[in-house]
């Protein structure tokens, strides 16, 4: 038992060191952009108010400097390890995201908060939308989700930083939304791929959705490795798939056309 505790402490120390290195020299333009994207996702897609989102953003700043590829043993925005790191990649893939993307990692982070990390989630969601709430959210995320060594001092540090992010983002939220939407539209126009009917082999287990959209409710899954004959495609990449006579949809982003 003592040996396991020592190993855990060593891994935790390594993760914290990686996080410290990520922001020791200040944020790059790309990192600052990621910070804004994370804040926008949390407030516009996942239902957090500005103060609650600022608390989460503050912790991500200290964990990875907003770099979704930060680390090695500990990986990503909040430095997942072991089984959680693997679960994050699988979950992101089922939603049609890369496990190294900001969107995929934020989606899994919120999933963890709502399931295995409810102690943190309930406290974060109780935070009011003001500077005090930002502090409470940053403190709670660190204390109950990250659970680092020196919990009290680190939680206070991240709570104080959350106030700074709240002040930074407050008043520019609408502009941030517009900027994010505009950037997403440009990326979609540049990188969108149109799929054609045929037989596809899935490279990942894919989530089935009620409608051809990542925002639609999940209603099942299609297993990795399965070959599916696709005759109808909606919104450029969503394959229609019938289950018990009902049409559902999955993304072809992680599927290879074999015939």
Automatic annotation (TrEMBL):
This is SH3b domain-containing protein. It holds the Pfam family Phage_lysozyme2. Coiled coil: none annotated. Residues 1-24 form the signal peptide. Keywords: Signal. It comes from Intestinibaculum porci. Residues 195-259 form the SH3b domain.
